[in-house]
Every structure is written in C-alpha cells, then in structure tokens.
Amino acid sequence: MSTAFATIYDFLSLGNVFLLLFTLMVSHYIMVLYEFRGMPPGPRFTAVPVLGNVFSLDSKAEKLTDAFRSLRQNYGPVFSLKLGSYKFVMASTPESVKEMLIKKSTEYAGRPQTYSVQTRTLGGKDIAFGNYGPSWKFHRKLFTSVLRQYVSDIPLIESRVSVQAQKLVHFMQEQDGKPFDPADCLMRGVADVICGITFGEGFDTTHPDLNKLLNLCANIVENDDVARLVTVLDFFPFTKYLPIKAYDRFIQPFFEMFGIIRKFLREREENFDPAKSVQDFISGLLCARNEAKMAGDGERSAFLSDDYLVNDVEVMFAAGYETTSTTLKWVIAYLVNHPKYQEDIQRQLDEVLGERSPSLNDRASLPLVQAAIIETLRLGNVGPLLLPHVTMTDTTLCGYRVPKDTIVFADTESVHLNPSCWKDPTDFNPYRHIDKDGQLITNQSNFFPFGAGRRVCAGEALAKVKLFLFVSWILQNFTFVPEVDGHPPELRGIFSITQFPAPYKIRAIQRK
C-alpha cells in the first residue's frame, strides 16, 4: 500500500512540475506579447526566457544584416525582436530610415550604453557612442567647430592631403607595375593625413607612438571574431560578471590607445600657448579647455576633462582613417572590375587638369570622380548598418509603437540596394549620379553613407575632401589592372567594424 501511495505521490509531484513549467512558459509568452504590443511585427513565440530571439537569427550569416534577412522576409522590412534583455527594431525602408534619422531625429538620438561601450569609452564620453545629452551636445559642437577650421581652410587641408597623396603616388611608382596589395599604403596615406590634422604638422605614422596607434586600430578591425562575440555578449548584461576573456581582448587595445593619447595631451599641454592660433585638433581642444578655465565655467571644465578629450582624439584618429581608407580600397576594386568607367574618369581628369595636379577647386569640373566615389559608398556599403540608435522617449515608427530605450538599427544597405530606389541596384554605375547635362546629382534622397540628422557623421566634409583628392591623384597617375589579366578583384565584402573588400592584389600601370 505504501508503495502505491508513493507512486501516486511521485506522479502528482511530476505533474505539478510540468504544470508549473507550463504556467511559467504561458506567463512568459503573455508578457512578451504585452511587452511588444503595437510594435512592428516579429517573432514572438520563439522568444525564449533570458535569450530572447537568438535562435531566430541566421547563425551562418557573415554579417549582422544577413542574420536579419530571414526575419525581413517573414515579417517585412520594419520588424522587432528581443535579444537578451533588449528590445530591437530594424528599419530597412527609405521611409522608415528617414523617419528615424531625420523627421524624429531627437527621439532616436540615443546610443545603447552596453557594458563594452561604457568600458571602452570611459563611461560613454565620446561623440560616436556616447548617449544623447548635455555632454554629448557640447562635445559634438566642439568637435565640429575645431574640424571645420581645417575643412574651411582650403589651402591648408589641400596641402596636407596632397602631400600624402604624392607619397602614395611615389610608393605606387616604386612597385614598377608589379602586383601588390594596396591596403597598407592606402591605410597609411590616409592615417598620415589624420595624424597631421590631429597631432600637428610633421606628425605621421613614422612616429613610433603614432605607428603603434595605427597598428592598434588595425588590430581592432582585423580581430572581428572578438568584436562580434562582444556585440552578442552585450545583449546579455549578466555576462559582464562572468570570466569571459573576450571582453579583455576587445577592450585592452582601446586602453593602450588612450595611454598613447594621454601622453600626447600632457606633452602638448605643458607647452601650450593660448595666444597662438589653433594649428591642429589637439590644440583646438586644449584652447577650449583653457577658455573654460579662464571663464570659471565649472560645467564646461567638467566636460573638458582628460577622459573626454582622450575620447575625442581617439574618435578623430580611428574613424578618420578607417572608413576613408576602406572606401579607397573599394574604389580601386570596382574600377579594376569596370575599366570603361576608369577610362572615362581619366579622360575627364586629362581634359580638366592637363599636366597640373588636382585641386579642391576642380571638384565641380570633375563630376565623374565624385560620382565614382558616391557609387562606391552606395554599393560598397562600408557601414551597412549605421551605429545603433536608442529611443529617448516613447515614439512611433511607420505607425508602430516604439517604447523608450528600444535599440533601433537603420539598415542603410537595404536602402542602397533597394530596386525601388535605384535602377539595377547591384550594378556599379557612376553615371546614375550624373544628370543629362553632365553635372553631379547632389542630395540623393535615398543615400545615407554618413547617416543623417543629429547623429550624422561629424567628419563627413573632411572624408569627402580626402576621398576626392586621393582618387584624383592616383587615377591621374595610374591605370589599375588585375594582378592576372582577366581575373579582377573579388567584390565580396568582409564585415568587421566596417565592411571592407576581400584582400586583393592589383598592378598600377604608370600613365604617360
């Protein structure tokens, strides 16, 4: 009899366990449905506790935009999901991207303050990843005002870029028509421009500390597996308490970079003369700090602490060289694949320039150079997803509810490859940016390589200057051909922090 009672007891206990689990699961999905009420459609019943919709993503995808592809197909171009403890919304249409970036720019101006972001920015103290607020607005204004002095001083910026472009041309001449990988020389050419603007005339990557700074930046980009893992781990806040080495491997290079930058700041501050005009980015920052100190402005002085200035310099250096050099790699790869367009550009360069060197004053007369750059930015998609935004308040997107603190991605790659926006969108065709009168079409409405609105890239104007001069210089002097005739570079993007072309070699044939 006791055995029978024990069996019944065990059965009832097991039944209670199943009932409890069933109740918990039902409660979980009711909470998920309530949490996402009125939000864009998305997978609800695959949202498991703690992990969210992790298993709804394409685990074989090489980049984040591809991981979301099946969700776009199933739920439409504007959808939502949950990853870890965060709600996400993906905007993939021109209308939704414009609404969040431009129409409702302030409402979507935040940035997610995850563990890795907070750690690598010393508490969110940079203008790329810092959250929207008084300190961000102050530094954004300071950053752009200091940078504007260079972009508006045409002779100065032209001189600094042209000197490095000449060095790049000389390096390519030394290759004597033999195959080489242009990645390193392009990276160093652009980085040397940024070194001069940031640290002062005469500074370039031959300086041991700046060479180390460049190598640290390059290692961060190349170590994409760690960056991807940290991105995923950030969705689950509890992981910061676990002994995961990926965080240390990802963050350590940033701390090494900050150490180098602090050294430069100390040296420059010791010899700082406020009576002198601003000659570089660092002196502009130190000038602002001195003015705040002299005015006794405690709030401004707090915003100009070493931690803030170190982040400003790091953003200026890292963002200033990486995206531009990657775009140049794409330009060469596309033009080697499309020699007819390369010939057309060179013909226009010859007609306009003759034997003289390119100048920024030639931009209006060289629409094909600019069109090739624009088309490369559209099709190469160096940043296929803009940096994530966070809603600062409850808002809407395309009529759907988007609660405060939702992470929202602008999938600009989908817009740039949208057949309703661009004819034959996967074809490289610079002439799509030239009007019937042969002039450059500006202000394309479905073109967001630098973002838009309050979070638009602060270095956009400088990037355009560098791209125009570098492309003009190298195409005036060389014709780029495949390493082996008939086998041009593969136009396959590899996604890390940016999307860069698969490594390739080309030959630079000196033009007569």
List its traits:
single chain; 512 residues; alpha+beta; 4-stranded mixed β-sheet; two-stranded antiparallel sheet; 18 helices; 10 strands; 54% helix; globular; heme binding; monooxygenase; steroid 17-alpha-monooxygenase activity; Cyt_P450_CS; iron ion binding
Helix and strand pattern: HHHEEHHHHHHHHHHHHHEEEEHHEEEE
* Radius of gyration based on Cα positions: 26 Å
How much helicity do the residues have? 40-55%
Say how many strands there are: 10
The number of distinct helices, counting runs of at least 4 residues, comes to 18
Mean of residue pLDDT values: 91
Indicate the proportion of strand residues: 5-15%
Adjacency order of strands in the biggest sheet = 1-2-6-3
Distance between the termini: 105 Å
Instruction: Report the principal-axis shape.
Output: globular
Question: Biggest β-sheet: count, sense, barrel?
Answer: 4 strands, mixed
Overall SS class? alpha+beta
- Uncertain regions: pLDDT < 50 for 5+ in a row? none
Main location: membrane
Enzyme class: oxidoreductase
EC number: 1.14.14.16
Transmembrane segments: 12-34
Structure overview:
The chain has 512 residues and is of the alpha+beta class. The chain is 54% helix and 8% strand. A hairpin with a 3-residue loop joins strand 8 and strand 9. It starts with a helix and ends with a strand. The model has no long low-confidence stretch (mean pLDDT 91). Heme binds at residue 457.
